[in-house]
Structures are given as C-alpha cells and as structure tokens.
C-alpha cells in the first residue's frame, strides 16, 4: 500500500498479512503510518496504490467489513446514550442480530457489566475505551482491528485486554493490534511489523526479531575442565569472573540446570546465573536508529 497526504508520505511501501488465530502487532513511532494502514484496510482512506484484502474481499467492498470489528484510535460515543444503547446502536448499524443477553455478556467481558445502564457521558476515558472494545467485539467478528486499544487503560485494564486477545486467538479470530506500547505487543503478539516513516523497518516473529538468548554467569574457580564444559553449552566470552554463553537457537529445557549442576560438580563456585534476551524495546530502538541512518 502507498498513501500520500499532500506533501506528507504516510505509507511509502507497506505490505503485511494477518492470519486466522494470529495476533499481529503493528508497532512504530508516532507518524509511522500505523493508523493510515488500518484506515485503508477498513475502507476509510483510499490508497494511492496497492490493494488491501479483508477475509478474501477487496477492502473497499462494504460486504468485506461485515465480519470485521474495529476499535478506532480516536472516537466519541453519544454522551446521552447508555453503554447498552451504544452497543445496541452499533449492532443495528452493522446489520447484525445479537440478542440482548449476548450484548450484556459482551459488556461483562470488558468489565462493564454493572455500568450497562449508565450514560456514556459520565464514563472515564478508560471506561469509554472498554466500551469501544465491546463495540468491536459484540457481533462476533472474524477479524478484529484495534488501534491503540489500551492507551487509556490502567495496568489492570491492560491485563484484561491481553486476556481478551488471547481468548480471541483461541477462537481462531485474526487480530491486528496497533500499539506504541511495546510491552503490550511483546506479551500477546505472534508476529510484529515495525513501521517507520511509512516503510516496514522490520517484520517477523518475536524470536526472529529478538534473536538468540544468552546466559550471564558470575563464577570463580573455573578449571580448564569447567571451561570446556561451559564451551559445550555455547560460545563463551569472559571478562574476570563474568562469563557470557551465547545459547543455541533452540536450547533444551534442561540446558541451564544441567550446566549449573555440572559446574558445581567440577568445583566451580556459582555466584549468579542470569538468562538474558534483549527486549523488544531495545531491538525497536536499534531498528529505528538504523533506519534513520540509512536515509
Ligand atoms: N488526514 C490526514 N491529512 C494529512 N496528513 C495526514 C492525515 N492522516 C495522517 N497524516 C500524516 O501521515 C503520517 C502518518 O500518520 P498516522 O498513520 O496517523 O501515523 P501513526 O498512526 O503511526 O502515528 C503522519 O505524518 C501524519 O501527519
Ligand atoms: Mg495512530
């Protein structure tokens, strides 16, 4: 997809797919083009070039959107309506039939069970965001598109959304999650697409993006035999009593306990054992810095 707004390029060249039962995270700094990509998918913005397909149909075909649930980044519901009325209105707009008990259940899954009869005008930002999620989910969609679903939520609310996304995934729903909250994405997404200035700066599963893990150890009394044992676990670098072992791509579950027990058996004093992996945040910063240096 490609999209320019006057002199501003929102999307230079972006392509990605989301599969059923998969949560794809769209990450990137402000202005990277995340919302534009989502708006093209939903037929709200027309791309200059390229094509978006939703559940096998062109995104500009309204019928394609019937099975899609969407939480916009910025929205405001009619303040005079109650939460229940907002939900009912959206069910009607979607031309879906969702019995009232199921609508109530949907409000309960977003934690608004006891606020169904309250006017939205009196809702906090976080409560409105929860209602927005209910609107996106109420008609049982096959594809759910969430643009910054947790920006206004407290940590508890974020954990709720995480559980909700995992439940959707279980049901085979495809989820496109657009977020600048990296921790969020790291916890729930199967794959990540990192956008920067309208381009895909990196894409892949988290293990692909984050690379191999390593093990930091602080040891003394390391004999040549113990050194050899360390080297059998992975490539070793050391400085003084600090040892770092680069683990293989898919290390056995027992690799670390076996290594520690063997080292102890060889008379090594083990002061610290710390598995390490760079975080998505560190990786993201690396990727964005590299992509800035490229131009
Ligand atoms: N309606 C619009 N008119 C003009 N420029 C826009 C419009 N929408 C987005 N843009 C520009 O396109 C770029 C990408 O914006 P957006 O997709 O909202 O980014 P993100 O969601 O990643 O923060 C930004 O430079 C933004 O200013
Ligand atoms: Mg946005």
- Strands, count: 14
Structural shape: elongated
Rg over alpha carbons: 24 Å
Number of helices: 10
Please state roughly what percent of the residues sit in beta strands, choosing from under 5%, 5-15%, 15-25%, 25-35%, 35-45% or over 45%.
15-25%
Sheet with the most strands, sense and barrel status:
6 strands, mixed
Unreliable stretches: none
Q: Give the averaged pLDDT, no decimals.
A: 90
Helix content: 25-40%
The helix/strand series, from N terminus to C terminus, equals EEEHEEEHHHEHEHEEHEHEEHEH
How many separate domains? Answer: 2
Euclidean distance between termini CA atoms: 21 Å
Keywords: ATP-binding, Nucleotide-binding, Transport
Family: Belongs to the ABC transporter superfamily.
Protein name: ABC transporter ATP-binding protein
GO molecular function, one term: ATP binding
Features:
single chain; 295 residues; alpha/beta; Rossmann fold; Alpha-Beta Plaits; 6-stranded mixed β-sheet; 4-stranded antiparallel β-sheet; binds adenosine-5'-diphosphate; binds magnesium ion
Quick overview of this protein structure:
This protein has 295 residues and is α/β, with parallel strands linked by helices.
Could you characterize what this model shows?
It holds the Pfam family ABC_tran. It comes from Dactylosporangium maewongense. This is ABC transporter ATP-binding protein. Belongs to the ABC transporter superfamily. This protein has 295 residues and is of the alpha/beta class. A 6-stranded mixed β-sheet has the order 6-7-8-3-9-10, sandwiched between helices. It is elongated and about 75 Å long. The chain contains 10 helices and 14 strands. The site of adenosine-5'-diphosphate (ADP) has 11 residues, from β2 and α1.
